[in-house]
Amino acid sequence: MEDLEALAKGDGAILETLTQMTVDTMERSGLDPETYMLVRLAALVTLDASETSYLLNLGVAEHFGIPLEKIRGTLIALAPVIGTARIVSGAAKMGFALDAS
Question: Shortest CA distance to 101 belongs to which of 15, 5, 34, 13?
Fold first, then answer.
């Protein structure tokens, strides 16, 4: 039960493992860092991902200096494709993740 609780809370060792899984994917994608992170954030919104997933990816986006306006624009571009409910859910989870950081 402890392991499940650690996973749910975003345990450091687990998050480190997840980070290591994606270390070379940006380089291999051939995308610039901004495009890469916006695609990842779009995927998280589409999947209705957890707040912890947003926290990780928003931290990397901040590291690359991606402005919130670009993230907002990505949400606007996604809205007609994935619908209002996913956009509102994703935006709320991003807000919680930003407040937690």
Answer: 15
The residue to which tokens 């901040």 are assigned = 62
Six token digits for residue 14: 């687990």
Alpha helices, DSSP H only, in 9-100? 12-21, 25-29, 33-47, 51-63, 68-82, 84-100
Query: Which tokens belong to 36?
Result: 């890469």
Condensed to tens digits (0 to 9), the pLDDT of residues 10-30 reads 566 766 776 677 778 888 899
Contact between residue 71 and residue 94 where contact means Cβ atoms under 8 Å apart? yes
Do 46 and 79 meet the contact criterion of CB atoms below 8 Å apart?
no
Calpha distance 28→17 (Å, rounded): 19
User: Which token pair is 38?
Assistant: 């916006």
Residue 86 to residue 75: CA distance in whole angstroms? 10
Please state at what angle helix 12-21 crosses helix 51-63, rounded to 10 degrees: 60
pTM flag (> 0.85): no
Please choose, from the candidates 57, 58, 72, the residue with its C-alpha nearest in 3D space to the C-alpha of residue 22.
57
